[in-house]
Write a structure and sequence with these properties.
The chain has 141 residues and is an alpha+beta fold. It has four helices and five strands, in the order αβββαββαα. The chain has a five-stranded antiparallel β-sheet with strand order 1-2-3-5-4. Strand 1 and strand 2 form a beta hairpin. The longest helix has 19 residues. The protein is globular and about 40 Å long.
């Protein structure tokens, strides 16, 4: 016996090949993102305008540069940069009398290895009502 694992070389159908293909087709990877939509590139995160339809005017998305399933899986550098970006985005919106809702999108966790955080501006006078709307929506699920 040569001591080589039976899975090597990788054969079509193996989990490694499937995972590689999933990551190769990830539309949230920085390399696949339209350069026209990128607003900021940091060390661990980038900010872009949504590639399709925006939820509101000035809606943007914070996306990790590496594949992570949720923000909980981010390291210290990720969390420090995310905190700074959220603060910066909030400050920029507040200058225009807007508050911001940050919503993490993590769906199909088995297939998608890349999350994003939607940053949706809302008028300050309406932002106080948002917790009640979110609570109602969650209770109705």
């Amino acid at each position: 016996s040569s001591g080589i694992n039976a899975e090597w070389p990788l054969r079509p159908g193996s989990e490694n090949i499937k995972e590689h293909k999933r990551l190769e087709s990830c539309y949230m990877c920085l390399e696949k993102c339209s350069k026209d939509s990128i607003v900021h590139i940091g060390k661990t995160l980038y900010v872009r305008v949504p590639p399709n339809k925006s939820l509101a005017r000035n809606h943007c998305q914070v996306v990790p540069i590496t594949h992570i399933v949720s923000t909980v899986n981010g390291d210290e550098d990720f969390w420090a940069e995310l905190s700074t970006l959220k603060s910066t985005i909030t400050t920029k919106f507040s200058a225009h009398k807007l508050d911001v809702v940050f919503m993490e999108l993590a769906q199909r966790l088995g297939n998608r290895k890349h999350i994003l955080i939607d940053c949706v501006p809302v008028p300050i006078e309406e932002s106080a009502l948002l917790p009640a709307y979110f609570k109602k929506a969650i209770l109705e699920c």
